[in-house]
């Protein structure tokens, strides 16, 4: 029996493999979330130096693979046994093995979140083109959400390939038909673009960034135009709830900007997994 046949015949094994794969990908996403903004900043500095005619910053090997992960406090290289998703954090007691500086709880949270969602995707879609595509979509949403939380920026390095990947998959009707995907990409971009300019004309301020337009366009390319109202509605509800909670519980000022990308990402994942059922229940009310 082939591996594919074995996974198709055993849902429990498929979900287990998906969870383990998700944990490993979550560990890599921690690197992406931390390093991608720094890589892009280095590229911008080099380009600015070239335009200004000044010497560029000295070249240094820095990408998603090099240099090796280290403790930010003491520089201790992270050994392979110290980099097992979630498990290493628990065995180390949440502290660096060398200097005992506390490790951010966010690392195992991202790994666990990625593992749980990957297992759920495997249960929801099975071993199929939709299942594999949904895994990529969910992983991208996790990375984008946390990068936006850290930097208030949604990198084109993720959103644009995600948009094209959605159109390519739907060329074969994986999640929706191609015309719906194309219209979804266009309408997703224009919807938030219109909100941006209406708000700017009314207040003279920028209410969101261009990355939000591209993210909603990517979601539209994956799920089709019919899911866009649900995504916008869900992201608004989630954003309002979290925003109010931050103001009330964390005493965050109302003038502190809150990134919209994480709420779009959450809404996109919900729409991917249960959008059709939610839309049917909503339409049934009318």
Concise summary:
69% of the residues lie in helices and 0% in strands.
- Provide the β-strand percentage band: under 5%
- Biggest sheet statistics: none
Residue share in helices? Answer: 55-70%
Task: Tally the beta strands.
Answer: 0
Separation of the first and last Cα atoms: 50 Å
| Low-pLDDT segments, ≥5 res | none
Task: Based on Cα principal axes, name the global outline.
Answer: globular
Please write the string of helix (H) and strand (E) elements. Answer: HHHHHHHHHH
Helix and strand content put the structural class at mainly alpha
Please characterize this protein's 3D structure.
By secondary structure, this protein is mainly α. Helix content is 69%, strand content 0%. It is built from ten helices and no strands. The protein has helices spanning 3-9, 11-52, 87-91, 106-125, 129-151, 156-170, 178-203, 210-223, 228-249, 261-284. The protein is globular and about 60 Å long. The termini are far apart.
């Amino acid at each position: 029996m082939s591996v594919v046949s074995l996974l198709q015949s055993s849902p429990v094994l498929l979900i287990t493999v998906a969870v383990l794969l998700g944990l490993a990908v979550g560990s890599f996403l921690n690197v992406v979330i931390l390093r991608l903004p720094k890589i892009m900043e280095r590229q911008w500095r080099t380009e600015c130096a070239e335009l200004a005619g000044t010497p560029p910053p000295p070249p240094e090997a820095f990408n998603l693979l090099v240099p090796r992960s280290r403790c930010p406090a003491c520089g201790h290289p992270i050994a392979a046994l110290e980099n097992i998703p979630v498990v290493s954090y628990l065995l180390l007691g949440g502290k660096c093995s060398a200097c005992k500086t506390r490790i951010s709880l966010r690392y195992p949270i991202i790994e666990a979140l990625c593992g749980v969602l990957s297992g759920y995707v495997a249960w929801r879609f099975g071993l199929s083109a939709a299942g594999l595509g949904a895994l990529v979509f969910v992983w991208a949403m996790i990375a984008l959400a946390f990068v936006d939380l850290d930097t208030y920026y949604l990198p084109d390095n993720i959103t644009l390939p995600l948009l094209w990947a959605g159109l390519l998959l739907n060329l074969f009707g994986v999640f929706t038909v191609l015309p719906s995907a194309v219209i979804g990409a266009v309408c997703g971009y224009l919807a938030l673009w219109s909100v941006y300019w209406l708000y700017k004309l009314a207040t003279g301020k920028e209410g969101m960034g261009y990355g939000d337009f591209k993210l909603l366009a990517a979601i539209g390319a994956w799920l089709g135009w019919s899911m866009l109202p649900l995504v916008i509605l869900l992201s608004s509800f989630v954003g309002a709830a979290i925003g109010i909670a931050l103001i009330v519980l964390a005493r965050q000022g109302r003038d502190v900007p809150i990134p919209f990308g994480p709420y779009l990402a959450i809404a996109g994942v919900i729409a991917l997994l249960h959008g059709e059922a939610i839309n049917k229940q909503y339409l049934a009310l009318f």
